[in-house]
Amino acid sequence: MTAGSLTLTRPARRPVLGPVHDVLAVAGRNLNVIRRTPRLLLFSTIQPLVFLVLFRYVFAGVAAKSIPGIPYVDFLMPGIFVQVTVFGAMNTAIGLATDLQSGLLERFRSLPMSRVAVLAGRTLADLTRNVFVLALMTAVGVAVGFRTHAGAARFLGGLALVLAFGFAMSWIFAVVGLAIGDPETAQAAGFLVMAPLVFASSAFIPVATMPGWLQAFAAHQPVSYTASAVRALVLGGPTATYIWQSLAWFAGIITVFAPLGAWRYYRAA
Amino acid sequence: MVSSAIEVSGLTKRFRSVLALDRVDFTVPAGTVFGLLGPNGAGKTTAIRVLTTLLRPDAGTARILGIDVVQDAAAVRRHIGMAGQYAAVDEHLTGRENLRLMGRLAQLPRWEFRPRADALLERFGLAQAASRPVRTYSGGMRRRLDVAAALVARPPVLFFDEPTTGLDLISRGELWAVIRELVTDGTTVLLTTQYLEEADRLAGRIAVIDRGRVIADDTPAALKARLGSTVIEFGMADEQAAVRAAELLAQRGTAPERDGSRVRLTSNDGSAVLIDAMHDLDSARLRPTGVQVREPSLDDVFLLLTGHHAEEETAVGDSQPVAMGAA
Question: What is the pTM (predicted TM-score) of this model?
């Protein structure tokens, strides 16, 4: 049909723009997929909104006793932000498991592209998605009574910390998704990682109200540190310790899980 | 300069107790089609995965255009394209977006991969569907898109893993035409298949693979000469009748093989042998319950070369019973 031949048997050229080019290409593809599945985006965004509204009204009365001095909604909001990004990181696991199952990862691995681009492109797309979700959460939060106590700059700083934390969580879930390799199981397994981190933390209620054995875990896990750091930024007061602790977790998670993910990616079958 | 596009030597890969590749050797001259023929579980896909740098072999070497697939995997990836048994494309992207993504990731500049993607969509009859998400495509359309994706970067060496499995006859014929066209342009193609006919139609050379081992490496013509071009199979009333029929037919020097109540002849002169055999059987009052005349299949090749049927990995002889499957 066409005179123009199917091949010129000319090898593809070497990467010019390097890994950045590949990461952006993969991230662009993933964002495109998010855009094409609006119902998934809608319902996965509504879910945390439901948590926000329910918690804000259901727990407000009980929580008021253990959190004197500030409205519960102001205490809750930073925790909800962190929760949203941890829940959202589940998409990283599901997305990678889906690509693994469909054979797409195999094809990527046979291409002359950067070795980290598929994982970095996925986590970057999920980071971008989180920006959108956090903006929406903020709007709904304000609508149900949330107010920042320490100014816009500190509030935005808090959101930046949440995004960084969500990015780190995405790398954990990338490893989960690749290790499990089928979307439904990845979702179920992801929940097991996510639930204790989110609920046994200071995200929704102060750790001091928990039994002693649980406090030992709840006080020292990354969700609590990050929720406390964001809370300190938003409500005012000293922040340095919390921020450093949260950033230390961020760095630690990336240092462990990025290489682990890259390793899993290359032996994923 | 490099006359062999693919050189495989002593390639070995073991998965737990299964030897998927057992000292496999073959060479594929540039600009030819090489067929790896074998049943499920023979090691064909493992061979492709090693050659496309997805899997490291335990021993042996493989070179693509002289480049070692283990030592310099990144360089190999710049010269190869692959299409697998299932369509490895993104469901949510459109056909065009899928091809463009492949072009970008193959490091082609935009001015090159954009027209290239459109030309391929046109060539594979997907131009009308180019702006639709792939999840609306039929199975045949997905597979065509998958093959097109392998061609975006114009790789000089292509790997097709059972490219026509699950395709209807028309799609299969179209894909065969594409492969022939590619080879005319100088591309080297390695394809795996379970169909002798497919290997025969496309490949200049065929390696028959059984339980990880190459048991024959020859031209299709030579393989078929050993087989006979026609297989005639008589179904007899019972095993006893089949034994007598086989004895009778053997007197004509046709070397019949018996399998239960069936008797099989292979010949290069099908119709004459069929008429003679029918005559002999009729004279002896051995009326067949069924007669089949057909081209030789993969199963016939296996019976000839190994004495056993082409079948999936089963607990035969030295292989261990598979106990871990139940867990």
Answer: 0.82
Say how far apart CA B25 and CA B9 lie, in whole Å.
Answer: 4
Percent of chain B with pLDDT over 70: 93
Q: Name which of A4, A21, A112 is nearest B77 (Cβ-Cβ).
A: A112
Contact B150, B83 (CB under 8 A): yes
B chain contacts of residue A9, beta-carbon cutoff 8 Å = 154-156, 185-187
User: Looking at chain B, which residue has its C-alpha nearest residue A266?
Assistant: B54
pLDDT of residue A14: 52
Domain residue extents for chain B: 4-217, 230-294
- What is the C-alpha radius of gyration for chain A, rounded to an integer number of angstroms? 21
Residue B152: closest CA among B82, B87, B90, B88: B82
Spatial separation of the C-alpha atoms in residues B178 and B146, rounded to whole Å: 13
Q: Which residues contact B206 (CB under 8 A, 6 or more apart)?
A: B34, B35, B36, B37, B199, B200, B216, B217, B218, B219, B220, B223
Looking at residue B148, its amino acid is A
Residue of chain A with shortest Cα separation from B101: A25
Identify the H or E element spanning B37.
strand B33-37
A43 CB near a chain B CB, below 8 Å? no
The mean-pLDDT minimum among B66-75, B134-143, B196-205, B298-307 falls in: B298-307
Helix axes A72-102, A152-180, angle to 10 degrees: 30
User: What are the domain boundaries of chain A?
Assistant: 39-112+129-267
List Cβ neighbours of A24 (8 Å cut-off, separation of 6 or more): A121
Token pair of B163, please? Answer: 């490219």
Q: Is any Cβ of chain B less than 8 angstroms from the Cβ of A108? A: yes
Which residue stretches of chain A have pLDDT < 50? 1-4, 8-9, 11-12
Q: Is the ipTM of this complex over 0.90?
A: no
Assigned CATH class of B4-217: alpha beta
Q: Does the structural domain B230-294 have CATH classification 3.30.70?
A: yes
